[in-house]
Amino acid sequence: MTTELVHGQNHPLPGTSLEVRVSAGTPVVAAVSLGDGQGRVSGPGAVAHLAAPRLPGIEVPARLAAEQRVTADLAAVPADVDRVHVLLALPPVAGSPSRFGACPAPHLTVSGSDGVPVASFTVTGLSSEAAIVALELYRRQGAWKVRALGQGYAGGLAELLSDQGLGRPEADAVAARVAEAVRPAPAVPSTAPPPVAAPLPPPVPPAASPPAAPAADTVPPTPAPVAGDASGWSMEERLHNQVWGMFEDLARTIAAYRSAVDFAESRLDQELDTILADPRTRVGPAAEAARDQARARQTELVDRARAVLDRDLAQLTAEAEVVEPALPPPYAGWESPVWHGYRVPAEPPMAVRLGDLHLPERPELRIPLLVRLPLERGLWVDGAQDRLRAVDVAVALAARLLASHPAGECAVHVIDPAGSAATALAPFTDSGALREPPATGAAGVAALLARLTERVDLVQMALRADVPFEVPPGVDPARQVLVVNDFPYGFDDRTINQLRYLADEGPQVGVHLILVAAREDAREYGPLLDPLWRSMMRLTPQPDDHLADPWVGHAWTYEPLLAPPGSAVLSQVLRQVAAARRTYDPGRH
Predict the structure, then answer these.
(1) DSSP string covering 369-385, please?
(2) How much is the pTM?
């Protein structure tokens, strides 16, 4: 089973013959540096890159591409090499993003000689970095391990190599060789997805030049959309990348349209000001004609921009109509027929769907909000709008997380201090999907939080000791999802601090929080809970435009995923999950 690594986590390697597959969503340079026990690189000859792709035991692609494969025979690397770093860098070519924050999060998979994936790592949290040390293969007590790093450098490859011990002239020389090798940049294959986070929008042109928006009838027809028409090594990955490509496309085309409209209005204001500033043209038939001409030019620009927008939206709508029916259960809405044919998976998915996103220019065009697993942040379902519906959303999210994992690899716990969520929790309690009844009352809340806090402590100790699989007997190795209702009612200072601890430290060791709360209800605690709210992803039980993308700041309307009224799909799915868990681990039931 593939282990999904988080920043800083390591994993043993099954042998010395390895392949590292990279999926970046945009063309990147893949490189490898060989270092000593401290990771210091001896010289330019210890760096493999597309202009010098081979070193003893190491080979990197001699090309620029969104998908790269690095091969390593660690038994053949020089004896003084104890650390092998896999590097990714953005090429300094026209049209390429200048920072990883404007690209899809790079995803790396390490496979053994048999081709079976061993570990994977998604490099998240990047912003201005132009080069990253993605993975470290390191020798420890005669055996090799892999560690997820994701360390970035805004100064690009030269800054990275300088930090690894090369003198700055040598580092600059290597970066220059790479830059020379990628000019001119090869065309991106048509199957590669567009960058998820391309810089948006383009600069607003000066008043003298209209935005270069081609007329709709001058654009060649686009091919019919196909589900899975994106890069990836599996249909699940291709669909995931395609959905994110649709999200980026919608953000980009809306940004271009709004920029064009803003420019048209700005130019109209400037032309009207010019007319009013000249006493000779301020009044009279000539002035009125000039104003009419200015308004006509504005209308023409807006109409052209709208025609391009309508064309792009029509294409995206057609793509959504093809992609949505092809989505697997973790990516699909509860109304999808795939949930009625649900089977407990053998492997966890790359991501899960938390809801839908749309923009006001075309609200009926919904883009699935896919979030990578394991979750990096807890989920806060804001109960200020509708507390009962907020509980329903939290239950649906917990059911989706549980159903997306293999039997025994995820467990859901519930804290319901006053028992007010009994109706919403019925699919869990009636199906037997919960391993224990919801915790109620002060004693039940304290006992469950103490147990989960202790689990986080023990797993962290094992990771720090570099023995991640050696946890004490009785510690459940499965991922833990904790649903907390009615927060902060029924919580004292100790349990509040434990929740904050779980929200901060839990995701790295497999404990994930879904909190149902209204921030206003926590005012009496002052700033004590502010770090908790900031550390979590806020979701709403009703459609709300509170989510902003990090590139252009669109206010995306989020809509939660709930089962259709009267549907028993949640209960059916959770019964299958409970039955599979009993078969997987009958001694615990």
Answers:
(1) EEEESS-SS-EEEE-SS
(2) 0.63
